Amino acid sequence: MNEELYLDFLAKWQEIVSILVFVVLGIGVLNYIFYRINFSLQKTLKEKFDLASEKETKKLLSGHILIAIALFLFCNTLEYETMKLDFVWFFIRLFVAMCIGVLYGYIAQLILKFYYPRILEKKLKKLRFTPRINPENGNKMKLLSEAEEDAYLDEGMQAEENVFSVDYDVWIDEATGYTKIEKYKGHLSALECDRCGFQTLRLEKEEIIREATETEDGELEKEYKCSYCNRIKRKTVVLSHKIRDTSGGGRLIDDPLTHDARISIVKIEIHSSKGEVREFDFQNLDQARNFLNEFDFEKLEEESY
Ligand SMILES: [Zn+2]
User: If you measure from the C-alpha of residue 225 to the centroid of ligand 1, how many angstroms do you get, rounded to a whole number?
Assistant: First the structure.
């Protein structure tokens, strides 16, 4: 390779990449600062809760990806004098920088996946359970228990709570009776019923209409039923011949709980074989028991028609 051409290229590279490091870092930092500002501008704790639960992990992940890229670029500006000796060094540096960048991104992603959710959950709990203030008189409101709140929820809302697709919090100002209902995502997913509008449409049964053969796809009929208005919806899906496991995930049958009025909280921790841990809190045994009956790994992910 032409020596002069290489040195020229090296100098240009050094100049441009040095600037890019700051550009990329700057975008990452600004992106996160905008998120924090947006968070602090949310008026109610509920709005902060919604923003943090939806965006925070994504914002952190994109921020760390940008840091990984900046790190990769930064490593590509080091050892300038050595680079001048031979262009082979340039490729060695490029390779090492890539390893460092990928390693950083990988570790950040692992931390966000396995360690960070617990921190976020703590934060979200604080946002959700900090006593609400009555806007009319500034009184501190009280959160009703699951048993007390039913009187304030209509039947459709109760049906949603019974299938754990939505969780309603009812806050009351005991002095004036003013109530405030907040809607949260439940532990399990259910589809929105197109007749009554509640999130109470669940997979009732699956039936194989036609088995898949070596050469042809089969057919599976899924029957959904709304637990509130009893609407039944059927949908046929193609059963491709290689990837089908109809065993339907792990259903918990054993019921380790017995009635005890002294129990104030029931925690259920479910560990998946992939190493993920999901924790669920319940106020009473009936709820926990119903949850176990409803539980299915497939319901943890959003179902789609
Ligand atoms: Zn319905």
Answer: 8
Q: Which domain does 231 fall in, by range?
A: 190-246
Using a cut of 0.85, tell me whether the model's pTM lies above it.
no
Q: Residue 141 falls within a domain, yes or no?
A: no
Who surrounds ion ligand 1 at CB < 5 A? 193, 195-196, 226, 228-229, 231
Under 8 Å between Cβ of 21 and 70? yes
First to last CA, the chain: 59
> Distance from the CA of 210 to the center of ligand 1, in angstroms?
29
* Cα of 192 from ligand 1 centre, angstroms: 8
Looking at 246, 263, 292, the residue that finishes a domain is 246
Rounded Cα distance between 274 and 249, Å, is 13
Q: How far apart are CA 220 and CA 64, in angstroms?
A: 42
Highest mean pLDDT among 178-187, 211-220, 245-254: 178-187
Ligand 1 center to 86 CA (angstroms): 72
Whether 161 is covered by a domain: the verdict is no
Burial (CB < 10 A; 0-12, 13-18, 19+), residue 196, is middle
Task: Count how many Cα atoms sit within 13 Å of the Cα of residue 22 in the half-sphere of its side chain.
Answer: 4
| Statement to judge: residues 194 and 119 lie in one domain | no
Domain assignment present for 286: no
Instruction: Output the CA 154–ligand 1 centroid distance in Å.
Output: 14
Question: What's the total number of domains in the chain?
Answer: 2
**Residue 137 clears pLDDT 50, i.e. is over it:** yes
190 Cα to the center of ligand 1, angstroms: 11
**pLDDT band at residue 216, thresholds of 50, 70 and 90?**
confident
> Considering 217, 246, 275, which residue would you say is the last residue of a domain?
246
Q: Residues 233-258: pLDDT tens digits?
A: 999 988 876 544 444 444 443 344 44
Asked whether residue 145 is domain-assigned, the answer is no
pLDDT digits 0-9 by tens, 248-296: 444 443 344 445 667 778 888 888 888 788 888 888 888 888 888 888 8
